[in-house]
Amino acid sequence: MPSATTDSSAPPHHAPPAARPRGPRANPWLTLIAVAFGLFMVGLDGSVVSIANPEIGRDLGASTSDLQWVTNSYLLALAAALILGGKLGDRFGRRTFYLIGVAGFTAASVAIGLAGSIEGVIAFRALQGFFGALLMPNTLGMLRAVFPPRKFGMAVGIWAMVSSVSTALGPIVGGLLVQHVNWESVFYINAPIGVIALVFSMSVLPQSKNDAAANERFDIVGVVLLALGLLAVVFGVVKGETWGWTSGGTLGAMAAGVVVLLVFGLHENRVAAPLLPMRLFRSRALTIGTVITALNFFVLLGVIFFVMLYLQNVRGFTPVEAGVRTLPLSLASVVASPLGAALTDRFGPRLTMPLGMALQAVACFVMLAWSPDSSYVTMWPPFIALGLGVGMVMSSSSDAIVGNAPVRDGGVAGGLQATALQIGGALGTSVLVSLISSRVGSTLTGELTTAGVPAPAAAGLNEAGDAVAMGVAPVSGEMPAQLRTAVVEGSHQAFMNGVHTSVLVAGVLCVVGAVVAVVGVRRGSTGPSAA
């Protein structure tokens, strides 16, 4: 499998004949199917909740801050424990901790629906995130352990396809359930998926772990430092939108997190059995793959967030109608993930990572032509380009990370990949929405007066910038029809100004990512085939 560097100390990829599993447990493709169930459940849950939040707020009397914590408690617990989940799997058994993760995630999902209070929802969402952190990294760790090198790339491509599609389908599934059932069903749907995953996985998954680590001292200090550092960084990121990116709280939280993570890195270099071996980053492809993974989900989740605002609040579509209109993105990612894996297998990530980033850049730059009343003809091409780019990068960067790690560190590498994904997604949503808010604040009054709103009224409506930044025009039934039309026109144009700023920044970052991948990943090097 082409990539940058290898770890010559990695053990043979295949177990000795006596240790090889027999029957269904000997079939790596059944392992892939089994982990796909758990991966789909976590991916779907990551994006479906945004659709349910308004109903949760109305039903439980939750404030906007409470609803933010419905998302943030999950994200913080997930990000803080992903690498720990991978390390536990590597040491004590990836199958074991995958099954614990599936069972816990399923039980926590049902508990959320039964909670009956916003405090209960927030608490069980955090628990759900923790069990998701046990589940996710061990999916890739098991694939790394059971697939031979020549087939590992395609397995990762299918893994990436499931991850991308489940994330993109979230708004559609969530819209259907909230509209036709209730918000609790968004979480209850995990129960049948989780039960199927458990029964099937227990039947087909082989156990895999790093036997050499059984007698090593567990790095408790590393666990604490990494969790505290990631918690502080992610907390600063998710609060940056509301506190302001230059506020003391935001900068202080992120700076403290970075300092703790630097201490964690120094600690890891001094212990015999580190939680996250720093030697992994000697692989240039692994390091760049981690950065590109974060950038990939920065763009995907950030763009999906404001696209849904645009389709629902500006264009007036229902959640289901909006979700259906983003289907080209999902379908394109279905095609791109295995295609990206096949191209990576043949040409290496030096081709597929920059190509995927370039496709995402094209999608972002095409969105610069969107207006408040754009036809769907101008929407689906960038959706397809974005889906192709995300799917291609997902498969190639995941392969670059996990494929360049020794088999014994497969779970940790999976945790590293998933951590980069979560932090990138959190940054994308927070940063791009903040850019929209900032641009709306600077252009709203001008756009309102240009649309025909009298200057005094336009100045008064400037206080409604937060609503306009979500695509909502600040109109009321008492307004004359002509004034209402002008307010809607000016507000929506101010929102589109913010969207254009966001896609321009995202597009430029994609171009930078493509250049970094081209320059940083070596040509013609080998990866897991040598492991």
UniProtKB/TrEMBL annotation:
List the subcellular locations. Cell membrane
Q: Where are the transmembrane segments?
A: 29-52, 67-85, 97-116, 122-140, 152-173, 185-206, 218-238, 244-264, 285-311, 323-344, 351-371, 383-402, 414-436, 499-521
Give yes or no: UniProt keyword Transmembrane. Answer: yes
> What is a single molecular function from GO for this protein?
transmembrane transporter activity
Q: Which InterPro entries would you find in this protein's record?
A: EmrB-like (IPR004638), MFS (IPR011701), MFS_dom (IPR020846), MFS_trans_sf (IPR036259)
Q: How does it sit in the membrane?
A: Multi-pass membrane protein
Q: Where is this region: Disordered?
A: 1-23
Sequence ranges assigned to domain Major facilitator superfamily (MFS) profile in this UniProt record: 31-525
Identify the GO cellular component terms for this protein: plasma membrane
Going by the UniProt record, its keywords in alphabetical order are: Antibiotic resistance, Cell membrane, Membrane, Transmembrane, Transmembrane helix, Transport
Q: Name the source's superkingdom.
A: Bacteria
Q: Provide the GO biological process annotations.
A: response to antibiotic
Q: What is this protein called?
A: MFS transporter
Q: What organism is the protein native to?
A: Streptomyces griseicoloratus
Organismal lineage? Bacteria, Bacillati, Actinomycetota, Actinomycetes, Kitasatosporales
